[in-house]
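Q: What residues go here?
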């Protein structure tokens, strides 16, 4: 009966197989209890990889629950709290529970060999007290407990890696989604030309399709308040959030069960030591408690260094991006040394903080590593010198075994504490980024129309890059009334700084609408587009910025831009552009 149940599929729910085009579905949903427990369902892929070098097509597709789309969709459905971190951990509560059960059982079974060793030594010392068959049972249980402990440990790590992978998908998805929804004014510089326009003196120009003036109000340089500076997230910071912070937060969640494991093992070790050594074991436990304030201080110092280092890392990535994006200008003006000096200066600060952080981590790890030895000395000193008791062979060997076991959870606790502090800093950075104000374009572009409203254009509209309408020095587009002509080429003409790019971005809803209305049929999903029979327009808009760029492909691929190849049209395009 046990073999029949174990060889059947794991669970009693209907099997759902998620198929990715071109990939073999994962056999995990159809695996039996024995197969899941021993991971034998992976054997086919491992043996195949042993024979030939595997390619992407040789790797099985993920389960439906492990796909980023399914994980993020579930995260949006289970939101029940205003804090992002609470929602994040709430989604994986079941996996955390299973992981806790596995690690708790592992922690208890870890002490079986030590306790059984005590019984065996007592039998060797006094064979008449126990039967030989019972002693052999203890030996067999010692042999069985170790594989079971290893299996539970592996299961806990497997569940942890699954949590880690799914959580990273949520973090990267949320950061990327937020980067697309943020207000452009509080996030990044648009392009070099756009920056030039916003920094230029105010200018009043005229639209080619309207007599309405496009005006601006402000000083020669746009000034930012300290509050806006604090909320600014440049490209380097976003890259750091996706590449570093999301990794640190998700990675630590794969090993959080070590906290439970360390706590249970420490409590059991002290309890068993108390049964062996009496109050002398409590003296050893008191030693651990007395050393906690020092370790707490070291952990807080480690967290502060981590916070400083991430800020400097953001700055370094931004400097590198600026250098790469403007490499041609840097070469033209021979500014290489200046940029190298700036990058090396930031890198030196980063290395200095990294060295200090590693130094604190070494001290913290050394203190935790030394703790079991100090506890052992204190406990044996109290037991033999103060109490004057004799240290027998069963008690001595069992106690030493327990003190040796106590070293592992304390080492784990030290490492986990430092990693948790670093992950907390990263999680706070992600939460702060996700709290940034979002664009109001989708509300702005859904306006009630009247008979005088244009199909595409503005109606007595005033725009600003700032969210506050009372900021006197901010660049503004004031009182715009423009009706763009349908089925015609509309041209906006003006000198640098007149607000041409800002006008287009305002039409797209990227600027903050202070008053008036803006009309642009462009918020419906592209797959649902329907041509309006009255105007011939669709709810779609495309914007090409002033920054030139190329696909990583051939010249033909750049010209076609994923369109089907038509030789006649292709030659006409080349001739027209020549």
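A:
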């Amino acid at each position: 009966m046990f073999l029949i149940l174990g060889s059947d599929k794991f669970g009693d729910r209907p099997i759902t197989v998620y198929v990715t085009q071109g990939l073999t579905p994962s056999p995990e949903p159809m695996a039996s209890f024995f197969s899941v427990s021993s991971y034998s369902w992976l054997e086919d892929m491992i043996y195949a990889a042993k024979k030939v070098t595997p390619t992407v097509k040789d790797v099985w597709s993920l389960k439906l629950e492990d796909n980023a789309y399914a994980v993020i969709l579930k995260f949006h459905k289970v939101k029940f709290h205003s804090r992002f971190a609470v929602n994040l951990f709430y989604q994986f509560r079941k996996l955390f529970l299973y992981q806790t059960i596995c690690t708790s059982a592992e922690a208890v079974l870890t002490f079986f060999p030590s306790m059984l060793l005590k019984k065996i030594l007592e039998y060797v010392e006094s064979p008449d007290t126990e039967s030989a068959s019972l002693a052999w049972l203890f030996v067999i249980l010692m042999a069985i407990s170790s594989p079971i402990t290893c299996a539970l440990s592996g299961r806990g790590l497997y569940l942890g890696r699954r949590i880690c992978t799914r959580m990273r998908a949520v973090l990267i998805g949320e950061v990327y989604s937020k980067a697309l929804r943020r207000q452009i004014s509080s996030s990044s510089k648009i392009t070099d030309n756009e920056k030039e326009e916003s920094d230029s003196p105010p200018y009043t120009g005229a639209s080619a399709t309207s007599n309405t003036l496009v005006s601006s109000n402000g000083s020669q340089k746009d000034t930012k308040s300290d509050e806006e500076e604090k909320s600014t997230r440049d490209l380097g910071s976003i890259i750091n959030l996706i590449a570093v912070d999301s990794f640190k937060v998700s990675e630590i969640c794969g090993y959080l069960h070590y906290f439970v494991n360390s706590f249970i093992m420490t409590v059991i070790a002290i309890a068993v030591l108390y049964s062996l050594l009496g109050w002398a074991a409590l003296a050893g436990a008191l030693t651990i408690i007395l050393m906690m304030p020092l370790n707490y201080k070291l952990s807080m110092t480690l967290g502060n260094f981590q916070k400083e280092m991430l800020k400097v890392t953001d700055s370094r990535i931004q400097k590198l991006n600026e250098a790469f994006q403007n490499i041609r200008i840097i070469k033209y003006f021979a500014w290489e040394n200046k940029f190298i000096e700036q990058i090396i200066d930031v890198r030196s600060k980063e290395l200095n903080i990294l060295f200090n952080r590693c130094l604190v981590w070494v001290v913290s790890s050394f203190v935790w590593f030394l703790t079991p030895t100090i506890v052992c000395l204190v406990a044996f000193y109290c037991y033999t010198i103060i109490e004057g008791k004799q240290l027998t062979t069963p008690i001595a060997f069992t106690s030493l075994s327990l003190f040796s076991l106590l070293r592992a959870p304390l080492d784990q606790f030290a490492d986990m504490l430092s990693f948790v502090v670093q992950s907390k800093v990263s999680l706070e950075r992600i939460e702060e980024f996700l709290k940034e104000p979002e664009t109001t374009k989708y509300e702005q572009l859904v306006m009630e129309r009247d008979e005088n409203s244009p199909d595409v254009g503005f109606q007595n509209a005033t725009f600003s890059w700032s969210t506050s309408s009372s900021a006197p020095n901010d660049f503004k587009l004031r009182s715009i009334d423009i009706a763009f002509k349908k089925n015609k080429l509309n041209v906006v003409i003006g000198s640098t700084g007149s607000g041409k790019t800002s006008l287009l971005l305002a039409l797209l809803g990227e600027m903050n609408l202070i008053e008036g209305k803006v009309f642009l049929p462009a918020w419906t999903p592209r797959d649902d587009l329907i041509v309006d029979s009255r105007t011939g327009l669709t709810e779609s808009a495309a914007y090409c910025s002033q920054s030139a760029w190329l696909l990583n492909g051939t010249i033909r691929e750049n010209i076609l831009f994923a369109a089907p190849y038509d030789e006649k049209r292709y030659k006409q395009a080349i001739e027209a552009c020549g």
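A: Context that may help when evaluating the design: The two ends are 80 Å apart (CA to CA). The chain has three domains: 1-66, 79-188+233-427, 189-230+439-526.
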